[in-house]
Amino acid sequence: MESPAYVLEFEKPLRDLSAQLQELRQRSLETNVDLDREAREIEAKIEATRREIYSSLTPWQRVQIARHPRRPYALDYVAALCEDFQELHGDRQYKDDRAIIGGTAFLDGEAVMIVAQQKGRDPKERIARNFGMPQPEGYRKALRLMRLAEKFRLPLISFIDTPGAFPGVESEARHVSEAIAVNLREMALLGTPSISVVIGEGGSGGALGIGVTDRVLILENSYYSVISPEGCAAILWKDSAAAPKAAEALKLSAAHLEALGVVDEVVPEPTGGAHQDPAQTAQAVKYALQKHLNDLRGLTAEQLRDSRYERFRRLGVYEEAGVVRS
């Protein structure tokens, strides 16, 4: 597991102040000198610096938080929100893709189907889960579970957290693009309520492959984008170091996505990110899920399909520029 001392670049002023505070307290203990006033001054400075940093995060800084190695992953939310999760394995065609997990569970006593992308905490698990990048069999497993949810009229909850689908030769040979495309079509036609939550990275079609749902929610410091900032920078500026500029241009942060109508609700996170208080974040996610499930529960299968179709047809905002003729 990653060290709890992991610090992002823009958080270093907080780390330096915290080190000063720790050193001051240690000196107070060793010398038996009362340094409470100095300690309170540093604590106030830490709090003011924290407010300043996290009240004006750039899109690129939010991408860094979304990738934080201590950020809660899908199984953490399942454990915090649900009871009796029973994981189901395999796509019945090739093998079990551990980058996608899924199965039945109970949310406040109601049976639901969970489908999620799962990253790994340590090197061994990261390799086993392919760094959260699903292959075709992962999307086919997800589709199998979605159809099972429809058969038994179980609400579908998906947790999105992937840099993107795995782009390797073997993945392409087993038709990853086709697997994602089939999921897009079949999710659009599901006759059961569905909600997706972007809990970390929402990268490209790899994220969309489990994200065509009646409601799309996103955590405050997550992102959802057609391409990673580094990939966009490499294409447009021929330099991946332009990733901060690309993140701004892509409008990939939660606030931008809500304004554009891509997501239906932004779920707040504790100051500093979800990893600072996973329990509080999980409760915020649970509240949002309950609210949207209550809205969807009374709709018929036909009504769900119609409203889902309308949702994705009106996605985004565009302007028509007038043509100037001489």
Descriptive account of the structure:
- The protein has 326 residues and is α/β, with parallel strands linked by helices.
- The chain folds into two domains: 9-56; 63-313, 2-enoyl-CoA Hydratase, Chain A, domain 1, CATH 3.90.226.10.
- The protein is built from 14 helices and eight strands.
- The protein has helices at residues 12-31, 36-54, 59-66, 74-81, 123-128, 136-151, 169-173, 176-188, 204-208, 229-236, 243-250, 254-259, 278-297, 301-313, and strands at residues 83-87, 100-107, 110-117, 156-162, 194-203, 215-219, 223-225, 265-267.
- Helix 3 (59-66) packs across helix 11 (243-250), helix 6 runs parallel beside helix 8 (176-188) and helix 10 crosses helix 11 (243-250).
- The longest helix has 20 residues, at 12-31.
- The protein is globular.
- The mean pLDDT is 92.
Taking all Cα atoms into account, the compactness measure Rg is 22 Å
Biggest pleated sheet: 8 strands, mixed
Helical percent range? 40-55%
Taking pLDDT < 50 over at least 5 consecutive residues as the criterion, the unreliable ranges are none
Q: Structural class of the helices, strands and pairings?
A: alpha/beta
Mean pLDDT: 92
Proportion of residues in extended strands: 15-25%
How many strands appear in the DSSP assignment?
8
- Element order, helices and strands? HHHHEEEHHEHHEHEEHHHEHH
CATH superfamily of the largest domain: 2-enoyl-CoA Hydratase, Chain A, domain 1
Please work out how many helical segments DSSP would assign.
14
